[in-house]
Design brief:
The chain has 299 residues and is an alpha+beta fold. Helices cover 26% and strands 28% of the residues. Helix 5 links the parallel strand 12 and strand 13. It binds 4'-deoxy-4'-aminopyridoxal-5'-phosphate. 4'-deoxy-4'-aminopyridoxal-5'-phosphate binds next to helix 5.
Length: 299
């Protein structure tokens, strides 16, 4: 498979207030964020020229930084404008947008009080996390790693360090021939996939785990609203691992994954049906509406 390395592309990356040619957007190897995972990021999607729920992503980025003890040195308006300008400057109408804030190289030890906080924003074409075959439904393994308890890590932050367990779990899944992994939480209850939230249909109702130790995703909340707009019953609750075989439909929801049907978790097969199909269609329609319409339908 031909891969295009992420450091060798044409385009522009916004870094600390200015656009740099893509290949020159570099940071020093003694950057605190690289050694101690003192970074937070976002994943956004631009559809037909509009970044879907941009302000919510920007606010989560700022909140994520605060949970890691730092303040991003730009206002939400400035960050929104920089994201929009990055997409425009790169000539995209459809793109994945990746802002990242991280501590710099002024100090390199656990204490990082005097590090400068950097912000960079890149974007690129990225059709869907699971590629062209996702509509057939993806297959999930059960991850060996669990989501940590909220008092052992800042789990509400989209912090770079929390992705260590995600990468380990995803690699394990891929090595075993699966597309992704279903992760349990520290108590052994169902949590989420490695980069998306999970939904289950039980007796015609849409159930999703309460986001205590993982991200309460923007797509997750959007899908819950879309389901309620369709008069579906939506239940947020603790879902035990033993309940998984009883679900009739399973799907994932996330910015990169969008709404993706699941056709297996380990040994158990599922058939994506009316509820998954309806929510996929409603989500695809919503992301292409004007920001004003999106706000109206999400209220
Ligand atoms: N959980 C994890 C671990 C993720 O990486 C993501 C993607 N940001 C999500 C959930 C879904 O979040 P969102 O819908 O806000 O993209």
């Amino acid at each position: 498979m031909a891969v295009m390395p992420f450091d060798d592309r044409d385009g522009w990356i916004w870094m600390d207030g200015a656009f740099l040619p893509w290949r020159e957007a570099k940071t020093h190897v003694l950057t605190h964020g690289l050694h101690y995972a003192s970074g937070v990021f976002e994943g956004e999607r631009c559809y037909a020229g509009n970044i879907f729920k941009l302000r919510e992503h920007t606010e989560r980025l700022i909140r994520s930084g605060r949970l890691l003890g730092f303040e991003i040195p730009y206002t939400a308006d400035e960050i929104d404008a920089a994201c929009i300008e990055t997409v425009r400057r790169n000539g995209h109408a459809e793109a994945y947008v990746r802002p990242i804030a991280y501590r710099g190289s002024e100090m390199l030890a656990v204490s990082a009080q005097h590090t400068r906080i950097h912000l960079a924003i890149a974007c690129w074409g990225w059709p869907n996390l699971f590629g062209e075959n996702r509509m057939k439904g993806i297959r999930l393994s059960m991850a060996r790693w669990r989501r940590p308890a909220p008092d052992t890590a800042p789990t509400a932050s989209k912090a770079t360090g929390l992705y260590m367990i995600g990468t380990l779990s995803k690699h394990q899944a891929e090595a075993e021939g699966f597309d992704d992994a279903m992760m349990l939480d520290h108590k052994g209850d169902v949590a989420e996939a490695t980069g998306a939230n999970a939904f289950f249909v039980f007796d015609g109702e849409v159930h999703t785990p309460t986001p205590v130790c993982f991200l309460d995703g923007i797509t997750r909340r959007t899908v819950m609203r879309l389901a309620r707009n369709r008069q579906m019953k939506v239940v947020e609750r603790t879902i035990r691992a033993e309940e998984l075989p009883k679900a009739s439909e399973v799907f994932l929801a996330g910015t990169a994954a969008e709404v993706t049907p699941v056709r297996a978790i380990g040994e158990h097969g599922y058939t994506p049906a009316r509820i998954t199909e309806t929510l996929i269609a409603d989500y695809e329609a919503l992301v292409r509406m004007s920001p004003a319409e999106v706000a109206r339908l999400s209220a």
